[in-house]
């Protein structure tokens, strides 16, 4: 087969995912793509993940390291890779059949990022919901830049739904505030090229006890961590745009993003207190400024509920907001009640 595509490096990082790693690797090997390298890094797993990885022999580049965490392991994989484009695939997720053939035509020098929807599955691989996030097919970065300036973010899938042009990761500098490889990268991508959005589920995102544990802590400490990380990314982005994007308007970082105000409000609730009417009013004002339609209404009602409901009920509502498993369970109950 004549190689016609740029080299794509798929980097799979694994920590104690012996149940899923083989399926993940096999989903990549099954792709119809002619210029690919597969790097699998075992981040000091204590189960049988490394043995599962070794079963693939020279079909992959396999590396084992001491446990260093997700970010450092991903950066290690990046340093080992040679690809023009980089795809970080979580070891418990699955690349869909024909996914790389679908995205191949978008691997162009003017494209900085390709993002696609993911289908949520349970630990056995059964679909458990609709594909997310809802994406409109486009290759226009300007609406995403506008969203960043307005909201501090744009809708993007988790790590396994994004492929980046290599240089997006170049020269990022200090990321000690960060826990993931693509936190500031997804924000930078629209400023340095076209972001292609594909309105199809080209991968599967596994939801299971191990990753849901990250959503189980309804605490003010957790809320503050998310706020600090969110703001850290935006300050980092502002520096990168100024240094790397000649002619681009500066990114002005604010403190009144609806996302930040929502987390701060939930932090008060998590501490067993009632947010003040001023705090709730400010949150609702930010929601009105940043959102339209049913989302605006839903978030305003959420803010009012945090103020009006007894703390125990408000805490449950906030937990549903941040915990996708509880949210899914609630939607299922409502759906069953409506059907009956």
Q: Could you explain how this protein is built, in words?
A:
There is one protein chain. The chain is of the alpha/beta class and about 350 residues long. The relative contact order is 0.10. It has an eight-stranded mixed beta sheet. About 45% of the residues lie in helices and about 15% in strands. It is globular and about 60 Å long. It is built from 13 helices and eight strands. The protein has helices at about 20-30, 50-55, 70-80, 100-105, 140-150, 185-190, 210, 220-245, 260-270, 275-290, 295-310, 310-320, 325-340; strands at about 10-15, 35-45, 60-65, 85-90, 95, 110-120, 160-165, 195-205. Residues about 330-340 have low confidence and may be disordered. Strand 1 (about 10-15), helix 1 and strand 2 form a beta-alpha-beta unit.
């Amino acid at each position: 087969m004549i190689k016609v595509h740029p080299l794509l490096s798929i980097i799979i990082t694994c920590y104690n995912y012996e149940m899923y790693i083989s399926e993940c690797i096999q989903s990549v090997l099954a792709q119809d793509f002619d210029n690919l390298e597969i790097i699998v890094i075992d981040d000091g797993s204590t189960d049988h993940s490394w043995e599962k990885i070794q079963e693939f022999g020279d079909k992959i580049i396999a590396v084992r390291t001491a446990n260093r965490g997700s970010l450092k392991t991903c950066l290690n994989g990046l340093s080992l890779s040679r690809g023009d484009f980089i795809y970080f695939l979580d070891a418990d997720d699955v690349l869909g059949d024909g996914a790389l053939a679908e995205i191949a035509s978008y691997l162009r020098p003017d494209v900085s990022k390709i993002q696609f929807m993911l289908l949520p599955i349970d630990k056995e691989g059964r679909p458990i919901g609709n594909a997310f996030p809802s994406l409109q097919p486009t290759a226009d970065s300007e609406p995403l830049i506008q969203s960043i300036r307005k909201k501090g973010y744009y809708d993007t899938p988790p790590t396994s739904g994004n492929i980046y042009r290599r240089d997006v990761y170049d020269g990022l500098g200090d990321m000690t505030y960060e826990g993931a490889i693509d936190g500031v990268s997804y924000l930078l991508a629209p400023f340095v090229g076209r972001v292609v959005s594909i309105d199809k589920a080209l991968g599967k995102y596994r939801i299971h006890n191990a990753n849901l544990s990250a959503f189980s802590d309804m605490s003010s400490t957790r809320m503050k961590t998310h706020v600090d990380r969110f703001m850290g990314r935006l300050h980092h982005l502002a520096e990168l745009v100024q240094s790397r994007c000649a002619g681009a308007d500066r990114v002005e970082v604010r403190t009144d993003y609806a996302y930040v105000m929502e987390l701060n409000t939930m932090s008060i609730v998590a501490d067993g207190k009632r947010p003040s009417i001023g705090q709730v009013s400010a949150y609702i004002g930010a929601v009105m400024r940043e959102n339209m339609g049913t989302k605006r209404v839903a978030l305003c009602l959420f803010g009012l509920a945090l103020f009006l409901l007894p703390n125990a009920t408000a805490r449950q509502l906030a937990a549903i907001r941040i915990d996708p498993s509880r949210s899914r369970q609630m939607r299922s109950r409502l759906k069953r009640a409506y059907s009956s």
